[in-house]
Design a protein that fits this description.
A 10-stranded mixed beta sheet has the order 14-13-12-11-7-10-9-8-15-16, with helices on one face. With 415 residues, it is α/β, with parallel strands linked by helices. The protein has helices at 15-26, 39-49, 59-63, 80-89, 107-117, 131-141, 179-183, 193-197, 208-225, 322-335, 358-371, 380-399; strands at 7-11, 30-35, 54-56, 70-73, 93-97, 121-124, 148-156, 232-238, 251-258, 267-274, 283-290, 293-297, 301-306, 350-353, 403-406, 411-413. A hairpin with a 4-residue loop joins strand 15 and strand 16. Helix 4 runs parallel beside helix 5 (107-117), helix 5 runs antiparallel to helix 12 and helix 9 crosses helix 12.
Length: 415
Amino acid sequence: MQNNKLQIALIGCGGMGQGDAANETRLGAKLVAAADIYDGRLQRMRETYGNQIFTSRDYREVLARPEVDAVLVATPDHWHARICIDALNAGKHVYCQKPMVQKPEDGHPVIEAWRKSGKVFQVGSQYVSSPIYIKAKELIAAGAIGELNMVEAWLDRNTALGAWQYSIPPDASLQNIDWDRFLGSAPKRPFEPIRLFRWRNYRDYGTGLAGDLYVHLLSGLHLATNSRGPNRMYATGGVRFWNDGRDVPDVMLATLDYPHSPEHAAFTLALRVNFASSEPNERFGFRFVGSEGTMTTSYNTLVLSKTPREREPGMSINTFPAKMQNQYVTEYRKKYPARPPVAELDNEDQKFQMRADAHLEHHRNFQASILNGAKQIEDPIFGLRAAGPALLCNESIYTQQIQHWDPETMRVTKS
C-alpha cells in the first residue's frame, strides 16, 4: 500500500470489471495492473489508466506483483472460485463479482482459503450496501409489518443489452484472444467469439438468470431479513423470446421455502425474471408481506403500508336456525364484547427515498474494510448463502425436480 492508498488490479476487463475499477479509483484507489484474455480490453485499460500499468493475459502474473494490494475479479463465472482462491493464497484482498461461484460445491474451498488468508473478501452484489435495503432490515426488525409470511421479488428487462446481447469486437480472432485460457475448466470446443463476448448465455461459463440476477434478489432479501437462506426451491421457465442459441432461460420463475429460524418466521419467496417484459424500463423490487402490513421496495424507494389486524373474527351464522343464531351470538359476545365504533385510523403509507449509488457504496465498504478495519460485509459465507440457493434454481429447471439446501451447513441435501 502506497501512502495509505489502495493499489488494485482488475482481473476480467469486461463491462462489470471496468465499472468496478472506475468505482474503486473514484474512491481513491490506484489501478496498477489488469488481466484479460482479449488484447483489445487490455489496450482499453492502458488508454484509461495509462501505459505504466502492468497488463497480461495470465492473471497469475498479476497476482505475483508485490505492489497489488487487492484484486477485482470480474471474469466469467466458471473462473471465479479458482482465481479467488489463488488471489487469497497470494495474500491479496478480493472483491469478486456475483455469483461467488458457478457451482455450490465450489463455495467451501473459497471460504476455507479466505479464513486462512486473513484478508478481506467481498462479493459484488451491491444491494447489500443499498440504503433502501438497510432501511428495510431496520423496519422488519422493528416489527413494522408484523410477522413475515411471504416475499415477492422481481427483476424484469426488455432490451437486447439487458438480455446479454453484447457487442462482439470486429477484430476478435485467435491472434488477439487466448481462447484456451478462456475455456479453462469448461469443455473444449473450437473458437467461437460469441461464446466469449456473450458468455452469460451459456451454461459452460455462466450461471444464467439465477446466478446473474436471482443472486442479487437473494442477497437483498438475506440482508433485510437476516436470513441464512431457504431449504427448498423449485423453478420453471425457458427460452421464450431470445432464440439466439443460448442454452439458459430468458424467463424464469421460482418458489423458495424459508424455514423458521431464530431470525424470522417461516416464509415463502417467489422470484421472477423476464427478459422480454414489454416494460419501458428495467423493473426491480420486492414486496414483503407481513401479518400487519406490507413493504414494497425499488432501486431507490421503500413504501410501508400498515394494515391493523381485525379486532374480532366476525360471524357467518345466517344459515343456522334462528335459535342457534341467538345462542351463538350470546357466546360470541362473551368472548368478544361489543365495543363502540372508533374513528377510522389514518393508514397513509410511509415512503422513504434514498438516492445513493449502491455500486459506489459497496466499493466504499470494501475499501473501508481494508483501510480502516471496518466490519466485512458480504463475505464468502454470505456469498455462498445467496449463490447456493440461486444455483439450485438452475438445477431445478434442468432436472425438473425440487432441490434441497441446508442453510446452516450451506450444502446440497437429498431432502
